[in-house]
Give the backbone structure.
Amino acid sequence: MQVEIKIDSSYTEPKIIILTDKMTDEVNAIAKKLSEDPPHLIAGFREDTLEILEQSDIIRVYANGARVFATTKHGEYVLRMRLYELEERLDKSCFTRISNSEIINLKKAKSFDLSITGTICVSLTNGTITYVSRRYVAKIKQVLGI
């Protein structure tokens, strides 16, 4: 099998074309693999138990030290993924990054305090207070439509 990549600035997203003389099992397998959505399951560890976390239950995901944690209404879980991997898996209409070390569920945000110059204070439904870093303030304002 040959693989060829062409760079063309007129394309805004990648486009894959398979050229073949006939349909084979290999071609079907490649097409199926390319069309599959990546798994959106998030697995969290609490003590020695692995639990599948529902995205709607996740309040925030944050990095602390070398570990990544997810906070839900049921407690806190250790995740074995990096934040950028989670950012790809999480629903982009609900989750947004607010700093290099934190992603929040916008549907679990109670209020946004804009009175602090240069940042935004976010109150979450579980009582946690967190801050949007300066780098992400413009992005959050755009998401919120302000």
Remarks:
- The chain has one domain: 42-144.
